[in-house]
């Protein structure tokens, strides 16, 4: 589990084909990295991935064909900045919202404009995901926990304060770019519970 509060920005150093899937080599960048362990989980642009190797300034993860096909990790260019977050510990403050690191689908950056000192972004998203996105609810975009400022049948809007822009890969996002979206866990489980009410 994660919080959606980005701990550091790294970069995609290499994508090595491995029998149909790929090994990603990721520069740790500003991620606190002195206690990394084999087998631990790190969210990379919102995707929960397992550390399979590391050195002093980078780590490697294996990305399955599904991960490569259903997230941005299969298409990002080498050198692309990446939002990084280590897994939540039980004693940590939960400053964002509960994030599983299981990306639900891709959205697209549709527009961007200044909103006082903030930067407002509009993202399109599949209708199947928009049903779980609520005004003033939480959504995870490229691993960043954000509050939904507006939502309609075609997309949603969020506002990024200067700190978020400066300390995440959002500083490099451009209109037209694809983004990873994870909807709120509670919304998915509530719908599933409603679907199975007659099972008992």
Automatic annotation (TrEMBL):
<dbReference type="Pfam" id="PF00677">
    <property type="entry name" value="Lum_binding"/>
</dbReference>
<comment type="function">
    <text>Catalyzes the dismutation of two molecules of 6,7-dimethyl-8-ribityllumazine, resulting in the formation of riboflavin and 5-amino-6-(D-ribitylamino)uracil.</text>
</comment>
<keyword id="KW-0808">Transferase</keyword>
<comment type="pathway">
    <text>Cofactor biosynthesis; riboflavin biosynthesis; riboflavin from 2-hydroxy-3-oxobutyl phosphate and 5-amino-6-(D-ribitylamino)uracil: step 2/2.</text>
</comment>
<keyword id="KW-0686">Riboflavin biosynthesis</keyword>
<keyword id="KW-0677">Repeat</keyword>
<dbReference type="InterPro" id="IPR026017">
    <property type="entry name" value="Lumazine-bd_dom"/>
</dbReference>
<dbReference type="GO" id="GO:0004746">
    <property type="term" value="F:riboflavin synthase activity"/>
</dbReference>
<dbReference type="GO" id="GO:0009231">
    <property type="term" value="P:riboflavin biosynthetic process"/>
</dbReference>
<feature type="repeat" description="Lumazine-binding">
    <location>
        <begin position="1"/>
        <end position="97"/>
    </location>
</feature>
<feature type="domain" description="Lumazine-binding">
    <location>
        <begin position="1"/>
        <end position="97"/>
    </location>
</feature>
<comment type="subunit">
    <text>Homotrimer.</text>
</comment>
<feature type="domain" description="Lumazine-binding">
    <location>
        <begin position="98"/>
        <end position="194"/>
    </location>
</feature>
<dbReference type="InterPro" id="IPR023366">
    <property type="entry name" value="ATP_synth_asu-like_sf"/>
</dbReference>
<dbReference type="InterPro" id="IPR017938">
    <property type="entry name" value="Riboflavin_synthase-like_b-brl"/>
</dbReference>
<protein>
    <recommendedName>
        <fullName>Riboflavin synthase</fullName>
        <ecNumber>2.5.1.9</ecNumber>
    </recommendedName>
</protein>
<dbReference type="InterPro" id="IPR001783">
    <property type="entry name" value="Lumazine-bd"/>
</dbReference>
<feature type="repeat" description="Lumazine-binding">
    <location>
        <begin position="98"/>
        <end position="194"/>
    </location>
</feature>
């Amino acid at each position: 589990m994660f919080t959606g509060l980005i701990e550091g920005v790294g970069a995609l150093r290499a994508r090595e084909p491995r029998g149909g899937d790929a090994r990603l080599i990721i520069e740790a960048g500003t991620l606190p990295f002195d206690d990394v362990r084999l087998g631990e989980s790190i969210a990379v642009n919102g995707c929960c991935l397992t550390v399979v190797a590391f050195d002093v300034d980078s780590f490697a993860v294996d990305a399955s064909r599904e991960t490569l096909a259903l997230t941005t990790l299969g298409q990002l260019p080498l050198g692309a900045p990446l939002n990084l977050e280590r897994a939540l510990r039980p004693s940590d403050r939960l400053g964002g919202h509960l994030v599983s690191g299981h990306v639900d689908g891709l959205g697209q950056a549709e527009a961007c404009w200044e909103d006082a000192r903030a930067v407002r972004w509009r993202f399109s998203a599949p209708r199947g995901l928009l049903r779980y996105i609520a005004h003033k609810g939480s959504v995870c975009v490229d691993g960043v926990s954000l509050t939904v400022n507006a939502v309609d049948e075609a997309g949603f809007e969020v506002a990024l304060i200067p700190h978020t822009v400066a300390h995440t890969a959002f500083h490099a996002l451009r209109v037209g770019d694809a983004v990873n979206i994870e909807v709120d866990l509670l919304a998915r489980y509530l719908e599933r519970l409603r679907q199975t009410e007659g099972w008992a």
